[in-house]
Amino acid sequence: MKLQTQLSVAFTTLLLVVMALVSYVVYSLILDLLIQDERRQLEQTGEILVDIINQQYSTPRDVEQFYEILREQDLQMLLYNHRQDVVLFSTLPTEILQIFYQRNDFSDASKQIWEYGKETFVTSRITVLPENSGLELILLTSVDDLRQVQQSFLLRLIFVFLIGASIVVLLTHYLTRKLVTPLTLLKWQLKRIEKRQFNHIEQIKATGEIKEVADSFYEMASELERYIHAQQAFFQNASHELKTPLMTIQGYAEGIRDGIFDEEEMKKGLEVMVQEVKRLKKIINEMILLAKLESERAVYEPEKVNLESLITLVVDRVMPIASEKGITIYHQAENNVNVFADKDKMLRAILNVVMNGIRHAATKVDIAVSSAGTEAEIIIEDDGKGIDETVKAHIFHRFVKGKNGETGLGLAITRAIVEQSNGKISAGHSKYGGAKFIITLPISKE
Questions:
Q1: What is the E.C. number (predicted)?
Q2: pLDDT tier at 58 (50, 70, 90 boundaries)?
Q3: Global pTM?
């Protein structure tokens, strides 16, 4: 069953149940309201009649005349003397009066509903003045008459219910269709992603949570497209990076085998082959490490690491290379700034960035560690020529190399290590004119 049909059935059922319950409650209450209204009318009529008795009919003959007037009224009533427990006048049949006598309905002033067989009467008592006379005028109305009114109301209620149900069904269909249509369009966009038709993806109009889902979908599609292109570029670059040293090794190996080179050229060829094998080994090791960092969480073993001590280790390792190239390393770090990271891998990540700075710097590399709130920040800057704008957006991708780059995997490995530590890394322009890398890591609370 389609989602639109399910929602339509659910909303329609819910609204119909609510309307049915409301109708039932109203139908049940209407009889009570009719009884209360009828009792008020009886009281008003009885009070008028009692006033007539009190004012105009004081002698026995007058009372007899009043009885004649009462008989002419289309009312069910009786005149009862509660002191003598006797009915002086009644418009009801004798057998009904006997039943009421047997049930003590006359003497029980609190009883307002009288029953005779299957028939029910609503009663109203009005005292005839003076009160010590003991006279009461009791008026009665059959509930069956009220039920006829109730049945008439029920027919109208059913008619209104049917009209309301029709409106509910149409409104539910319209609303659910409006709600589901964006999801249906989103489904077709997913089909296009399945077929990798990223250029044919279109924005859909939606609101609320569906818009949030759609926005997440577009972000996912963009990221997936970027990932696919990155994978394609990775395989192309990887094949190129591996093919070049292999071809060099193959060329020298075949030349040595065929005796083309003299002794000096052969030694040179063997040295080149050794260097290329080392380069191949480095590329392969870095590719394996990067793959493990991105796929195997167990490879990363975080612990509490002091950044001041870590930067000291970095400086100690790069100092010989920096001195050889005439590069000065400046570093400063706040005390007691700790992060939760894999010490060896984070050391490698920072080393990659610092070595990158040393390769491109003119005279110096600056390393600074600071903290703000819940985050620690490592800033590495150099005074070289800076990052080429053509590679800036992809500098942390695999095999993206700047001038004098080695494998093109160092910064990709750094990004993977930093992200494993729940941190972020970004690249920009330094105040010294060169490159600037900012590593942000959450401070350890332990």
A1: 2.7.13.3
A2: low
A3: 0.46
